[in-house]
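Recall the central idea of this unit: under ordinary conditions, the amino acid sequence of a chain determines the structure it adopts. In this exercise we apply that idea directly, starting from the sequence alone.
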Amino acid sequence: MKTLVLKKLTDEDLVFKIIETNNDKLFAELYDRFSKIVFNKCYGFSKNKEEAEDLTHDVFVRLFVKLRTFKGNSKFSTWLYSFTYNFCVNYVQRNAYKKKEKITVVTDQIKDDAFEEIDDATLFELKSDKLAKVLTLLEPDEKMILLMKYQDDMRIKEIMEALQVGESAVKMRIKRAKAKVIKIYDDL
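Accordingly, the structure predicted from this sequence is:
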């Protein structure tokens, strides 16, 4: 297949062609289209360039095997985002216990109705260096949903598709994560 024809294929058509033919040149095109995005997401989890490169490589190796599970019910980019996120969360959880320095944050169980409404402006006013430390103290799923919303500028609907949960679940997770950020930030 000629390069020009490849460039004109939609992401979804390219994926289905890869599934149909198992052609590594087609997969290389998919890699070219998405490697920077996957790298950036992996870097968001690892904060280390070499580790992010390794994770990116691992994501694409795993993707080649799992590509057949893409059914086309959402955009491929959304599906890949979710795939990459899940891979990175599993990686973080698998390796968290190996890290010598552990930081424990003690939080009280707070009932849903006890969360005060936190507007986005409050989050944006936090000092970036202190906020970066707070993000390291969040659970991976809390950090991920905040990054999806504020770093990747994803709409609620896009987050719903990526996480395969309902709108109210997305909104509640964002609300809880924002409340936890404020609490940890104030405690530092």
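The radius of gyration is 19 Å.
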